[in-house]
Predict the structure.
Amino acid sequence: MEDKEFLERVQGIRQRLYRIAYTYIKNEEDAKEIISNTVYKGYKNLGKLKNVEFFETWITRILINECHQLSRKNQGKIHVSLEFISDWMHKESEENYDIDDRIDLYEAVDSLEGNVKTVIILKYLEDMTIKETAKHMGISESRVKNYIHKGLKFLREKLRGEING
């Protein structure tokens, strides 16, 4: 892959990469740093990409690894930006939910861990299919389904507890 093609492909998915990074980190500057590190590592290791058809999957994996690395380094929660929640979660189908419900949902998703969190973000927030999610994470579709089941069960219990509690 030529340098120009690399840059064009990165530009084509830049917004999606930012949304994923911001969902994990909840800090604009850190998300931008993660994107920068991802692009650098992707470019540096471009020779390891065996098939350019899998570029998006490959660069997304690098991004997710960078997010996990920064999360481990920070070991703390960063408060959620209300402006981001409003922009990011505002969909016509959700207009009947108030901002408190959205914050509860966002915080519940944020409390998920590891691959369960990644699957929920990719499947429901990035609208990927189970097959696409499995491909991006390098795991089987049955594993993705298992993580979805675990994640949704956790979210239901957590949100019920907050509603009833």
Summary: The CA atoms of residues 24 and 110 lie 7 Å apart. The mean pLDDT is 79. Helices lie at 3-25, 28-44, 55-74, 82-89, 99-110, 114-125, 130-137, 141-164.
